[in-house]
Amino acid sequence: MVSLARLGRYVLIFVLLTIVVFTGIANPRFLAVRNLLNILLQVSVLGIVSIGATVLLISSGLDLSVGSMLSVSAYMAGLTIANIGSTALGILVAIGVATGIGAVNGLLVSTDRAHPFIITLGMMVFLQGVAIVISRGSPINRMGGLYELLGIRYFLGIPLPVVVFAVLLVVVNFFLRNAPWGRYAYAIGGNEEASRLSGIRIKQVKIILYTLNGFLVGIAALVLTAILDSALPTMGSGYELRAIAAAVIGGTPLFGGRGNVWGTLGGVLLLGLVSNSINLIGVSANFQNVVLGAIMVAAVMFQKSQ
Amino acid sequence: MIMDKKNSIVLQAIGISKSFPGVKALDKVSLSFMSGEVHGVVGENGAGKSTLIKIFSGAFQPDEGTVVMDGRRFSSLTPSLAQSQGIATVYQEQQLVPWLSVAENVFLGAEPRTPLKLVDHKRIALETEKLIHTYGLHIKPKQIIQDIPIAARQEVAIIKAIHQKAKLLLLDEPTAALTGSQIQFLFDLIENLRKKGMMIVYISHNLDEVLELAQRITVLRNGQCVGTFAAGSIIKEELIEKMTGHKLSTVTSQTKAIAEEKILELRGVYFQGALADINLSVNKGEIVGLTGTVDSGYRELIRLMVGLLHPTKGSVVLFEEPFSPKDVYEAIEKGVCFIPEDVRKLGLVLPLSLAKNITLANLKGVLQHGLINLKNERLSAQSYVTSLKIMTRSVDTEVRFLSGGTQRKVLFAKAMYANAKLLMLEEPTQGVDVEARQEIHRLLKDIKSLGKSIVVASSDIKELMEITDRIVALRKGQIAKEFHSSSTNPAELLSTILGD
């Protein structure tokens, strides 16, 4: 028997195919391999952030600070590269800063003193401030080695950021299924009190999950910095909500206990394809958000009706 | 109030079927309810009782069949449609707003208005008072729901239904949370309503109650209607046979604990205002019962024994070492497992599969190089499904699809998988049908014969006398008396608990 959740996934695939076919007819350039790779490249940063969002949502947590976390860690990496000139150190800084912030979020959430929504909302505002303070509002251009490493390189004809996204999908999926903390994420999301009474150390698990989320944001920050070849103090804004939207469109409910990263891949692709189709069909870019918003609501309403 | 003449059919179900993934919950069930009768519906867990109620209340839509209410045919009901047809449901967990008053709840959604179109609080209070008076209830209109006992909340739900001009009242396990005198009061209320022409559908696993109250009794088995019987023409044993499909065998053999090896000991334990000077021990291979009234402290006591609460004075000793775990993980490491009463809220992770629930408290058991071996996990779970006779299609079935009794067995499997040496159970057969109850009792004896110790906290005296070796009766936070289960009787036990 086909379960409803699985049916939802089929519907998502069907919607994706419909968009592909219609846009392909309207503008044959859409189906060119180069354009398809371009779409994947465009969604790779969102995709990496969305993997983290999925893991947190499964455990019925969430992190609204990922956008400004991305900005801060990218900008710190940019500062390091511009001033010291070491790409390796820049990479370490980006991942270190984001992972550290993720761990702090985890620590704060695990105290159970407030809902993660409020805690990470506060963190989001705080980090936005930090990004403006350290940058004084100005971007850093020319990422040199990082740009050459991640921004323009291909692996078997595929842009490297897409490869990074794909690898992370496979790895996180594997750990969600097979690592104890992956199982505990589902258990805590499904019933936190029963999990506690089963001897699961909830605090530890939450800290691990939020730290992992920070780590993924660090990688996303590096990828985005490399693609843009610059670091901006506001480059991550908006990612938090789009990442959650992608995960929810992909079938992970806001109340947790279920979901997986493959669904989220579908959600990310849907968002990316819609943006791209709108461009290619020749609709004004101003309409993009109107259409995207409508699709998000429609997709989530459909999930909810199950 | 209700003008139907006696013995007319109020509600009729014709050929109702309903399936869920993996189970056919109802299979072409037909039955009819008449005005002025209490109609008992009995069956084992998973027989389809709750599903049937939910179809009448509009919570579920049947896959096929028709519901006829007052001559109108419906292929399915919605909650609002059911309500407008005069069908009211009182669930175990009621749908009252906890922070509103009794009167506000009774009138919720139908508030009388003042000429300025504001809510007429005076009239609400006055009319509620009238209802309370008519039915002799012990509540006041202005009391806030969350401040009144569960029994009183149920009464509020019932007068709310009366106020909404319900013709048919669906009661699902209404006595589950009540004590003796409260139950009698509820019975009087039901009888009173019946005489006024109300139709009452009474679902319960307690056959004595159903036999006492109902005029007719319908038996469900595996989603099918076995038959409807006049209450006077059938006895309990026959009902059980019809529910289970075979003759009842009782577990009576009582094996004596041989070795007196102390596993757990409480020495002079105090806990806040709830418990004072508790001294007691649990031996290897022994089943100890804890009982008392709701406020006697026996529920706090079992939580102290599993380390969820810590004594304010005195000490708990496990295997001759002080036992004061800082979290449940540590308690389970030391072999102490707690199975709480509220299985769905505190015991199980409903969206996870049966296999994943069983291994949850001891994931180490299926780890290989730090990762879960999914194949081994399913195999281990399968062995428990077989040995505990857990009714499921597969170990991959999500536990939310299992019946209440089966869900409890999953928790036993989970505790055994976690290598529990000391099992702490709270109301282990609450809401479970006759046969599952027998099976759970048998299971406990099996676990005991493996040399494990079991503590059962229960308000069910008969159950404790059947399965335990010793019973510790509490009263007002102190141990009133300890009994050997084989040399006491219910009357003695009950009078100790109540302090007469």
Summarize the topology:
The complex is a heterodimer of chains A (about 300) and B (about 500).
Chain A lengths: L3 H23 L6 H26 L7 H19 L2 H24 L5 H20 L4 E2 L3 H7 L2 E2 L2 E2 H19 L1 H11 L1 H6 L4 H27 L1 E2 L7 H11 L11 H21 L6 H18 L1
Antiparallel strand pairs in A: 1-4, 2-3
Helix pairs in contact in A: 1-12, 2-7, 2-8, 2-10, 2-11, 2-12, 3-4, 3-5, 3-10, 4-10, 6-10, 7-8, 8-10, 11-12, 11-13, 12-13
Chain B lengths: L8 E12 L2 E12 L3 E5 L6 H9 L6 E6 L2 E3 L4 H6 L2 E4 L11 H5 L14 H14 L15 H14 L4 E5 L7 H16 L3 E5 L3 H7 L2 E6 L2 E7 L5 H9 L17 E10 L3 E9 L3 E5 L6 H8 L7 E6 L2 E2 L5 H6 L2 E4 L3 H5 L6 H6 L7 E2 L2 E2 L1 H14 L16 H14 L4 E5 L7 H16 L3 E5 L3 H7 L2 E6 L2 E7 L5 H9 L2
Parallel strand pairs in B: 3-8, 3-9, 6-7, 7-8, 13-20, 13-21, 16-19, 19-20
Antiparallel strand pairs in B: 1-2, 1-4, 4-5, 9-10, 11-12, 11-14, 14-15, 17-18, 21-22
Kindly provide the name of the CATH class of chain A.
Answer: Mainly Alpha
- Helices and strands of chain B: which structural class? alpha/beta
CATH topology of chain A: ABC transporter involved in vitamin B12 uptake, BtuC
| Global mean pLDDT of chain A | 90
Shape of chain B: globular
Could you provide a short overview of the structure?
The complex is a heterodimer of chains A (306) and B (500). By secondary structure, chain A is an all-alpha fold. Helices cover 76% and strands 3% of the residues of chain A.
Account of the protein in words:
The complex is a heterodimer of chains A (306) and B (500). Helix content of chain A is 76%, strand content 3%. With 306 residues, chain A is mainly α. Chain A has a single domain (4-20, 34-305), classed as ABC transporter involved in vitamin B12 uptake, BtuC (Orthogonal Bundle). In chain A, the strands form two sheets. A two-stranded antiparallel sheet of chain A has the order 1-4. In chain A, a hairpin with a 2-residue loop joins strand 2 (154-155) and strand 3 (158-159). The longest helix of chain A is centred in the last third of the chain and has 27 residues, at 202-228. The two termini of chain A are 16 Å apart. Chain B is α/β, with parallel strands linked by helices and 500 residues long. Chain B has two domains: 9-244, 3-Layer(aba) Sandwich (Rossmann fold); 262-498, P-loop containing nucleotide triphosphate hydrolases (Rossmann fold), CATH 3.40.50. Residues 1-5 and 250-258 of chain B have low confidence and may be disordered. Classes of the chains: A mainly alpha (306), B alpha/beta (500). The A-B interface holds A 1, 3, 177-180, 183-184, 186-187, 190-191, 193-201, 257-258 and B 21-22, 327-329, 331-333, 338, 340, 345-352, 356, 360-361, 363, 367, 370-372, 374, 414, 418.
